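Moderator note: this is an archived Q&A kept for reference. The question asked for a predicted structure of one protein chain; the sequence and the answer are reproduced below.
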Amino acid sequence: MLINSLMLFIEETLPIFILYAYINAWEFTQSDRSNEKAPPGQVSSLQLTYMFILGKNYHHLMYISAIILGLLFSYLLTSIRPWLGSSYTGTGYEALLVIMTIICVITVVFGLHAKGMLARKLYFSISLFTLILPHASDFIVFFDSVSKSQLYSSITIGAVLGLGICASISYLLFFLFLNLKNDIVIKLAVSVFLAGQLSNVVNILQQIDVLPSSLPLWNTNEIIADRNEFGQFFHVLFGYDATPTLAYLAVLILSFLILFAFLIKTSNSKKMQIVDSVNGDQL
């Protein structure tokens, strides 16, 4: 039970921690664009941890509030899951999952493109909220199902270990992008992450027979299984699937190309606007 709770906690919470790391890194690079700042190597670990959790001048309080609201509303979602499961010919909950995934992806893209700080924080907060809801609800269902077995100690230890692993991965990603200070690298990582989230929609639609099921193109479970630690980590990071179908792979690749091309295009447009404004001022 300890291993099961640990693996499930990592599976359900790692996407949230990774998105939080990407948002933090993006916020930091944007806020430092016009201000000189000491390199990450000259900043103490305590200061880095503070910036990771709260941001500069408590700028991440909106994100923390979104996370808390997501956890609270996940209890509400859990309570109405039986009703959602029986609505719309038994596909109500799956339809909600698809909608929340699309909202999460769109708000992240809008947040990366937003010019104002308030708009950017609002978009990112919505993305965190919509990502937390289903994942927290799944863990609540699991906890409720095993609570009758009175294995609270194993579940608690698994959750604590999973929380530590996810937080460590998130902090390492944040520190990595902090040192790189490259918008293109962050946009590449975010595009891969969002493409992986969108590709999960294919599995959901196949489960409710909206999309036809098909045989996998290959099977790499002997190399990296879906259910082990590396398989789950790679699945969250870039949508790894040991047995992908053609539809899954097509959505993964196409969504990545579209998202990355859109983010790069908007970045180039902003640079051109800056150059034009500078040339106009010189004239």
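Archived answer notes: Residues 2-270 form one domain.
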